[in-house]
Design a protein that fits this description.
By secondary structure, the protein is mainly β. 10% of the residues lie in helices and 36% in strands. It has 3 helices and 9 strands. The strands form 2 sheets. Strands 1-4-5-8-7-6-9 form a 7-stranded antiparallel β-sheet. Strands 2-3 form a two-stranded antiparallel ribbon. A hairpin with a 2-residue loop joins β7 and β8. The protein is globular. 30% of the residues are buried.
Length: 158
Amino acid sequence: MDCTKLGYFTNETIDFPSDERLEKKFVAIAECGQEIPCNPCEEACPVKAITIGDNINHIPHIDFQRCTGCGICLGVCPGLSIFMAHRKGDTGWVTLPYELFPPDEGEEVELLDRQGREVGKGVVEKIRRLKQHDRTLLITLRMDADLIQTVRGFRRSA
């Protein structure tokens, strides 16, 4: 996985699961571009779907078929570099780690791409707090399925 000189990932530079896999259930996706000594995601994954390898500086690799979509890796990643996605027909969901004052479930929000540009509207479907990491919330946003490869943030609508 390569982070570009732009300072952010593009759809071409991340390993994204197939549409068939996205239809089954939520799956974790990493946008980690820093080769630094870090492996909390690998250590936390209960099904060993995330591997770093022998060199702790390697970028994490997620086995999409093995991933159960539990979300534990999202909460433990210090770089907030992992998110989850799922789709059913025309509806898509993205779950993001979030460490600020949360919106309300059911609230309409502006969906943002990797550069912070608005790309559409979505709804906060679910807010979860994991036992394993109680300081990072998992915010699930419902949106048009075509946006799940693009949305990496949100802001409350004015």
